[in-house]
Design goal:
The structure is a single chain. This protein is an alpha/beta fold. It folds into two domains: 161 residues, 3-Layer(aba) Sandwich (Dihydrofolate Reductase, subunit A), CATH 3.40.430; 205 residues, Rossmann fold (3-Layer(aba) Sandwich), CATH 3.40.50. 41% of the residues lie in helices and 22% in strands. It has 13 helices and 15 strands. It has an eight-stranded mixed sheet with strand order 5-4-3-6-1-7-10-9, with helices on both faces. The chain is elongated, with a radius of gyration of 24 Å.
Length: 379
């Protein structure tokens, strides 16, 4: 998807003052309209309120997406999103190109993702309280410039394109976990991301691991015991101890060597599954607080009905024998809810957790995962 930042910028990098444009350049407004018409635009709360003040309605002939979790007065005709991922997901439904129209914090968040900048450069300093991020010449190439002038200002329409990225060796490792209920399709996305990381740079080395790690007793219980609610304490203890071995033997040494470590399940599985079995979630979180925190955790989210339908269609020789947690849809419903609750708790604790809509094509799911990964590695 083409992500384009569009902005008017003064000579001193000012873009706004008290929620308003410091200048009134009709040619700039017309230029903005010509570029964005027919495409989605993403804005923050302050820009949204400014549009309401002047128009009292969305910008016409465009999908208006507001990225903020602090909007109380949600007017009809706007779409509200609380994350970059969900905002881009909405935009994709409308076009393969999206324009980011501010303000300051929105520009800053999208700058690492942007493929193009459409800038109206006003050749004059203005007083203001909002600024555009620095346009680094090492990252951006000026492709087009039109110099303009009216009775009050000299200005230029400038198009920048991102320079091809030179991939450098990763000096420290990166730890990525995939989570989700059985049948969500995470194993496919694990393989896709491992391939993407490996192909992204000749300096990348990838280690793939999974939970359970090596304790055979865990899988024996899963396949021999048909009651999803039994042996919760024992399973929690076995999983956590097995995970500690995985961390010491696989995760830490490879991160130290600068490798990427990707795990199919990690601590959130124990938090979600054993809470569904009846244990206390916060206690399970605290028992694993000494474990390394993944740089990224992806949760592939699907409905229990979709997951069970997928599992029924899979070849037993490929998937393996059904285990105790897979046959009970009420248990899977609790499990999915626990993943949602746990993800919010861990995000509040500073962890980067991304919930991915798994009820799309494999290609669409991976495209979102790839975009998040590429943004995070760049940061």
């Amino acid at each position: 998807m083409e992500i384009i930042l569009i902005a008017g910028i003064a000579q001193n990098n000012v873009i706004g003052n008290k929620g308003m444009l410091p200048w009134n350049i009709k040619e700039d407004l017309q230029h903005f309209k010509e570029l964005t018409i027919g495409h989605p635009v993403i804005m923050g709360r302050v820009t949204y309120l400014s549009i309401l003040e002047y128009l009292n309605k969305p910008l016409p002939n465009r999908m208006n997406i507001v990225l903020s979790d602090k909007v109380e007065d949600k007017k009809p005709g706007f779409i509200f999103a609380n994350s970059i991922e969900s905002a881009l997901e909405e935009a994709k439904k409308y076009s393969d190109r999206v324009y980011i129209m501010g303000g300051q914090s929105i520009y800053k968040q999208f700058m690492p993702l942007a493929t193009k900048l459409e800038i109206t450069k006003i050749h004059k300093d203005y007083e203001g309280d909002a600024y555009f991020p620095e346009i680094n010449e090492s990252d951006w190439l000026e492709k087009k410039r039109e110099d303009k002038e009216n009775s009050e200002n000299k200005f230029s329409f400038i198009t920048y394109e991102r320079k091809p990225q030179i991939i450098k060796p990763v000096k420290k490792g990166m730890f990525i976990a995939f989570e989700g209920i059985d049948g969500c399709g995470k194993s496919t996305q694990v393989r896709n991301l491992v391939h993407h990381i490996f192909e992204k740079s000749k300096y990348h080395h990838v280690v793939l691991t999974r939970n359970p790690y090596k304790n055979v007793s865990i899988r024996e219980i899963l396949h021999q015991d048909t009651d999803p609610y039994s042996q919760a304490e024992k399973l929690a203890e076995l999983y956590i101890n097995d995970r500690k071995d995985q961390v010491e033997e696989v995760v830490k040494p490879n991160l130290k060597d600068g490798f990427f470590v990707v795990t199919d399940r990690y601590k959130m599985s124990t938090i979600s599954y054993q809470t569904a079995q009846g244990l206390e979630m916060q206690n399970l979180i605290e028992k694993q607080s000494s474990l390394p925190i993944p740089h990224i955790t992806f949760i592939i989210d699907v409905s229990p009905e979709e997951a069970m339908d997928r599992m029924r269609k899979e070849d037993v020789s490929v998937r393996g024998k059904e285990h105790k947690f897979e046959a009970n849809i009420d248990f899977i419903k609790k499990l999915r809810e626990n993943y949602k609750i746990a993800s919010e708790i861990l995000k509040e604790n500073g962890e980067k957790v991304f919930v991915i809509n798994g009820e799309r094509s494999k290609e669409e799911i991976f495209q979102e995962i790839k975009e998040i990964f590429d943004r995070e590695i760049q940061n």
